[in-house]
């Protein structure tokens, strides 16, 4: 029979894979979120950290549809949100000490990134993945697989909010995959409001769709 330590190591191994390529384990956004919640909940149970886990959930996992609801309630026509949802749990796992990204930004780097993202000149143009990396350096972590890559930029300080860039690998008006992914939007708040860049604005404008029946209108205060 396996020891508790062996089971814990296996859960950490599963978590590291899951926050990298969720579609190979969870499939869709609902199943991926359930699996990530289970992994983190079990690790915190093993480590007797239930109160820490509850505190993290109160910050990151809010609303009747949890993290996936943050995206559904925005009524955007973008696909699936599997990687977007998973990126949030990568940050949660980091704050809990169960995941270490490849790179963490220092205070100056993180402050500069946050400042640049607020500028009109950043928001009014499209950025390729190559240009994004040239601007801010390599991301702390990437969630990959499928139609969207999420570039995650995290700080050395666990209390500092990560910034996520959602990069489209294929666009609905193109016949093939893009040679280089382009930033569709970025997110820098706990409720994951997608700040659309021009390509995201065009996508949202051209492909308006009715929201699924399970989604209800959400007051703007939710995103503030």
Q: Can you put this structure into words, describing what you see?
A:
- This protein has 224 residues and is α+β, with helices and mostly antiparallel strands.
- It has one domain (4-207).
- 44% of the residues lie in helices and 10% in strands.
- It has 9 helices and 5 strands.
- The chain has helices at 4-18, 29-46, 50-60, 66-72, 82-96, 107-118, 120-123, 129-136, 198-206; strands at residues 141-143, 148-153, 163-168, 182-187, 195-196.
- It has a 5-stranded antiparallel beta sheet, sandwiched between helices.
- Strand 1 (141-143) and strand 2 form a beta hairpin.
- Helix 1 (4-18) runs antiparallel to helix 2 (29-46) and helix 2 packs parallel to helix 5.
- The protein is globular and about 55 Å long.
- It starts with a helix and ends in an 18-residue tail after the last helix.
- Mean pLDDT is 92; it is low at 208-224.
List the helices and strands and how they pair.
Blueprint: H1 4-18, H2 29-46, H3 50-60, H4 66-72, H5 82-96, H6 107-118, H7 120-123, H8 129-136, E1 141-143, E2 148-153, E3 163-168, E4 182-187, E5 195-196, H9 198-206
Antiparallel strand pairs: 1-2, 2-3, 3-4, 4-5
Helix pairs in contact: 1-2, 2-5, 3-5
DSSP E strands, number: 5
Class based on secondary structure composition and strand pairing:
alpha+beta
Low-confidence stretches: 208-224
User: Within the largest sheet, what's the order of strands?
Assistant: 1-2-3-4-5
The Rg value, from CA coordinates, equals: 17 Å
Distance between the termini: 49 Å
Number of domains: 1
Shape: globular
């Amino acid at each position: 029979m396996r020891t508790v330590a062996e089971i814990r190591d296996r859960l950490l191994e599963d978590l590291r894979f899951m926050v990298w390529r969720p579609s190979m384990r969870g499939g869709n956004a609902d199943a991926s979120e359930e699996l990530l919640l289970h992994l983190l909940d079990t690790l915190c149970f093993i480590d007797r950290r239930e109160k820490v886990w509850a505190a993290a959930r109160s910050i990151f996992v809010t609303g009747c549809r949890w993290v996936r609801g943050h995206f559904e309630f925005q009524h955007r026509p973008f696909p699936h949100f599997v990687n977007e949802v998973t990126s949030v749990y990568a940050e949660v796992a980091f704050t809990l000490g169960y995941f270490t990204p490849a790179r963490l930004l220092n205070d100056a780097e993180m402050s500069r990134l946050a400042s640049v993202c607020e500028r009109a000149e950043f928001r009014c143009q499209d950025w390729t993945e190559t240009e994004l990396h040239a601007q801010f350096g390599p991301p702390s972590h990437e969630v990959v697989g499928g139609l969207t890559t999420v570039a995650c930029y995290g700080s050395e300080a666990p209390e500092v909010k990560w910034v996520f860039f959602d990069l489209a690998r294929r666009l609905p008006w193109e016949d093939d995959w893009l040679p280089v992914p382009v930033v569709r939007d970025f997110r820098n708040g706990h409720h994951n409001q997608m700040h659309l860049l021009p390509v995201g604005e065009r996508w949202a404008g051209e492909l308006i769709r009715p929201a699924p029946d399970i989604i209800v209108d959400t007051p703007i205060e939710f995103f503030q």
